[in-house]
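REQUEST FORM: STRUCTURE PREDICTION
Request ID: SP-0412
Submitted by: Lab K.M.
Chain count: 1
Length (residues): 137
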Amino acid sequence: MKLVIDTNVLIAALLKDSVTRELLLSPSMEFLLPEFALEEIKAHGSALSRRSGLTLEEIDLILSVLLERVSIVRASQIKPYMKRADRIVGDKDPLDAPFVALALATSNDGIWSNDRHFAGIKEIKVWRTRDLLSLRS
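STATUS: Completed
RESULT:
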């Protein structure tokens, strides 16, 4: 299975050792992430450190391990799909558009997000963590 991951999935995996982290490290899955999401995560490093109880160095280490399983996709690759993604996302959350554009630009099985904004998207399959867990059972 190949999924575009939303930033909230990566953040959840950084905050604690959880099923989200376990799924991200699964060798049977592939993941895609738009490059801007890395900037977003790094900008919130201090808040992530406070919330998780981990040092910035520990956060960086966990992030580097998780990113070994993630293909980072350049903005230039998704740019041609941004207008369509903006239409699909509508006025829900403009920050979701790059994830939708990435899903449109690549061959994949959908977007993995626990963000409610994705719930109304019909054009792309949206997976929640619990959906992925049910596949393992």
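NOTES: The two ends are 15 Å apart (CA to CA).
Reviewed by: T.R.
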